[in-house]
Amino acid sequence: MTVFLGAKSSKAARPPTSTRAATMSLSSKQIEGIAHLARLELDAAEIPRYVDSLSSILGLVSELERVNTDGIAPMAHPLEGQVQRLRADVVSSPNLRDLLQANAPQVDAGLYVVPKVIE
Amino acid sequence: MTAPTLAALSAGLKARQYSSVELTRAALARVERSQPQLNALVTVTAESALAAAAAADQRIAAGTAGPLTGVPMIHKDIFCTAGVRTTCGSRMLSNFVSPYDAHIVTLLADAGMVMVGKANMDEFAMGSSNETSYFGPVSNPWDTARVPGGSSGGSAAAVAARLAPLATASDTGGSIRQPAALCGVTGIKPTYGRVSRYGMIAFASSLDQAGVITVSAEDAAMTLQAMAGFDRRDSTSIDAPVPDYVAELQQPLAGLRIGILKEFFGEGLSAAIEGPVREALATWQRLGATVREVSLPSLPLSVPTYYVVAPAEASSNLARFDGVRFGHRCDKPRDLMDLYKRSRAEGFGAEVKRRIMTGTYVLSAGYYDAYYLKAQRVRSLISDDFRRAFTEVDLLLGPTTPTTAFGLGDKTSDPITMYLNDIYTIGANMAGLPAMSLPCGFADGLPVGVQLIGPHFAEGRLLAAAHAYQRETDWHLRAPPAFGADFAGEA
Fold first, then answer.
1. Domain B6-298+380-483 CATH superfamily
2. CB of A54 within 8 A of CB of A31?
3. Burial class of B36 by CB neighbour count within 10 A (0 to 12, 13 to 18, 19+)
4. Residue-range definition of the domain harbouring residue A51
5. Is the confidence metric ipTM above 0.85 for this complex?
6. Whether the Cβ atoms of residue B126 and residue B114 lie closer than 8 Å to each other
7. Tens of pLDDT along B96-128?
8. What pLDDT digit, counting tens, does each position of B214-231 carry?
9. Can B48 be counted among the known catalytic residues?
10. CB pairs A-B closer than 8 Å
């Protein structure tokens, strides 16, 4: 079983599905891959700690594998019969750009500033 | 007055025994005195509190005051407050000032309540001990070497130490009930969707619910009355009428069918907890309730199910923190990827990162079905168990926590040990059910909580059962010796 952790491949075809939970022990390479997907910088020293803690969390979770859920519908909402409400597509709040951008680390002329993306 | 309940303070204000300004000054003084020992608050809002109190006094004088007008309170720092920083216990948001108020912040302000500050909490509400806060741990007022529970540890400690008669809180897996139990106060997690989450920073959206921590069930009913109701700005808000919770407190208990949760009384429950919980059950029997044992065989699967669902949803919700629009940004980013990665690595603490990593993994390609979808199927089983149980009984009863408050630092090394603190509380979140924790005694000087769980929208029934119990007992009125001195008397 391989994990699909490549950063460039997120638009690729449908991921392989698995009916069996992964092995409980994760590798350092997997941890690095997960951290990349989660956009978290990792210290080399942190990796073994994540290997341990995530492996033990997945161990806890592995109890679910033994449960027979054939024919059981997945529950996405705690209350039955809820439907997504819709509203008319009209302006519903005033323009708060200045107020919202007051929290931004860096803005210029009403735009959010980030490091150059296109060379 | 030795009972600083919301109801008593409200009556005192109405009778002009003291003004809201006097009460607010007393609350601010208590907050200030307690901070070095408890660290229950992240931000104190003295100036705006005194202004709100003066406005409340005018309402009282004009005869336009409601039952909550002029009473000091504290908001958990997960609720956005316009103009006052909202940190969610994180470095990520340590300088964040919300442009708007959370819905319940507006509702309680409109009711005339006086916010004296923002309560400390586990970072992004992830924790059961309030030790993951960027602003330092909170101490339990009953023994400052112990944790108050979490994630609403600041809210529970503040109410226990009588800093204010109530504090708002939120509950994703027990974050209202568990700290309420460990601090000897009353906490209610309403039905999923009963209270608007607009402006409540998201953790796990299929589980999160706002509620309140108070001294008594009557106070909880009074507060919930003002907090509950439909809000179109929260897409999961339920459009259903809000009953008169205060009137429902008078529901007779005779014939109430209480189910004892068999799965909650087995291995792992400390005898020190079981004793007081069974005594509480006997009290309800004396009050006319009938009792039978009920088994929910899927309920023990709540913890593993939670540790798929909650981290998965958290990893999605916390993706918004990118160092671009708001929140922490790292110094001198090399490029956009570096900006994202270092801002997030620096802005989030260890437990939050652990949950984002877990959630990212279980949602990653190839694992979604095996983990998230599987967990959602098991969640259906747990929910079905509750549904069946509520065809036979009106309320379910069990302990809130397996043990009393543990020592600061005792459980920080192993995440699993910490996660198991919520073993009895997560089930109600899985099924979206309303649930309460009430003080029901002490073990070695530390508070013990009993938990009641009801069917969807049965808050009135829960509160009535709790209120009847609290009329027979005074556990909820016991205050920690070091902090519990008369509140109103200082006003």
1. Amidase signature (AS) domain (3.90.1300.10)
2. yes
3. exposed
4. 7-66
5. yes
6. no
7. 999 999 999 999 999 999 999 999 999 999 999
8. 999 999 999 999 999 999
9. no
10. 200
